[in-house]
Amino acid sequence: MNPAKREQIFARWKAANPEPKTELAYNSPFELLISVLLSAQATDVSVNNATKALYAEADTAEKMLALGEERVRHHIRTIGLFNTKAKNVIKTCQILHERHNGVVPADREALEALPGVGRKTANVVLNTAFRQIAMAVDTHIFRVSNRTAIAPGKDVVEVEKKLLKFVPREYLLDAHHWLILHGRYICVARTPKCPECPINDLCEFKQKTQPGQKAKSGSTKKSAAAKKTGLTKKAHSRTKASSRKKASSAKQAGSTIKAKTKSNRV
Ligand code: SF4
């Protein structure tokens, strides 16, 4: 894929969703770390459902230690692998308390030394909580990067390196969220929703689905969510129309240069 196409893809995602956010609910780096740790092989919704009550009781490492493994296990019992995860949460909190004064370190090496925290979790925390440039490649990002040819690679590390190299600098901080949302709601695993995809004309996937081709189960819920996050082609067109409208009003108000820049970005 050439750089101009990549630029256009990210410009469209940014226009449709200027401030993309993680779908995990959190109020501090500590809560984000625990939520990401719990989200392995689980949906963000299931994690949020469990952590609402958990964080109401324990929103720091010290409070989590006081709560104890048994109560943590009880709170997260609806999430897959909850036994191992409860153990890791307590061990992680012990290390945070003993080595980091209860504060989540903004440092890859220290994060990866925590039980249950691998490269991907560390990348999410560094990027989302500390706004560092880091690319957490999960199954969605791996699929989207390969299908579109934004950053093709045979494993997650290769894709991560290519994304860091090829994504235009101005989009790097938020690229992780746009890619993940696109993979979660549009470029889904079994039947990607190519006919409604806002980057269809730029994507280099050779087996795009055609209009009328039925999406597999779960699509209705996901389509509704995609509309909410502004990820559909329709939402993209609406954004374009609204940008054109804004540009024309700006011109009338004498802000021609500003308006042109905005319009060209879409
Ligand atoms: S056109 Fe299809 S394969 Fe390409 S990014 Fe969109 S949904 Fe995915």
Question: Key features?
Answer:
single chain, 266 residues, mainly alpha, Endonuclease III, domain 1, 3 domains, disordered C terminus, binds iron/sulfur cluster
Account of the 3D structure:
The C terminus is likely disordered. Helix 2 packs antiparallel against helix 8, helix 4 crosses helix 6 and helix 9 packs across helix 11. It contains 14 helices and no strands. It folds into 3 domains: 107 residues, Orthogonal Bundle (Endonuclease Iii, domain 2); 101 residues, Endonuclease III, domain 1, CATH 1.10.340.30; 33 residues, no CATH class. The protein has 266 residues and is an all-alpha fold. Helices cover 61% and strands 0% of the residues. The protein binds iron/sulfur cluster. Iron/sulfur cluster (SF4) binds next to helix 9.
CATH architecture of the largest domain: Orthogonal Bundle
Kindly report how far apart the N and C termini lie: 19 Å
Helix count? Answer: 14
Low-confidence stretches: 239-266
Q: What ligand species are in this complex?
A: iron/sulfur cluster
Percent of residues in helices:
55-70%
- Total strands: the figure is 0
Q: Which descriptor suits the 3D outline?
A: elongated
- Our Rg estimate from Cα atoms comes to 20 Å
CATH class value of the largest domain:
Mainly Alpha
